[in-house]
Amino acid sequence: MTRLQALDPKETTGRSKELFDGIQSKLGMVPNMMRTMGNSPAVLEGYLNFSDALGKGSLGGKLGELIALAVAESNTCNYCLSAHSFIGEKLVGIDTTTLEMAREGKNKDPKIAAALFFAQTLVEKRGRVSADDVAAVKAAGYTDGAVGEIVAHVALNVLTNYFNNTADTDIDFPVVEAQTV
């Protein structure tokens, strides 16, 4: 049972309605997470702006989705695991084996694997990574800017994981459950 109410886009007014209309035109739907975030237009707009900005970054959509899965597994967020598994496969074209490996912080490409491992390390250490942790991801070929973007992707996904775990958001994608307990 959800703990925070998802708004009905057809009955919403004001800034949330404007944001919902934009989401609807872009995605063809307003996912439950965003409908629930709409209770605070500031939260929804902040999420949308942060997500949009990172989408224009150097890491690309594929790595962004893989980081989202690694972080969601670390935070046991079934909503985000479900959403990003669906988005990764259906919209970004990532095969299911790669999606599943990302949840464990792994990838066949050593550079991507280093980013996923660093993302999980950020979560595990709550951002208090060591000089060696940063040196390892940079040695894999990431610039200072790209390392900053990995941190930002983790932060965005921690926001959505914590939000969905707090709200107990109804999952409106094919359900994927965390393996970690």
TrEMBL record:
**What would be an example GO MF term here?**
peroxiredoxin activity
Q: Where is the Carboxymuconolactone decarboxylase-like domain?
A: 41-84
Pfam families, per the entry = CMD (PF02627)
SUPFAM superfamilies linked: AhpD-like
Q: What is this protein called?
A: Carboxymuconolactone decarboxylase family protein
Native organism: Flagellimonas alvinocaridis
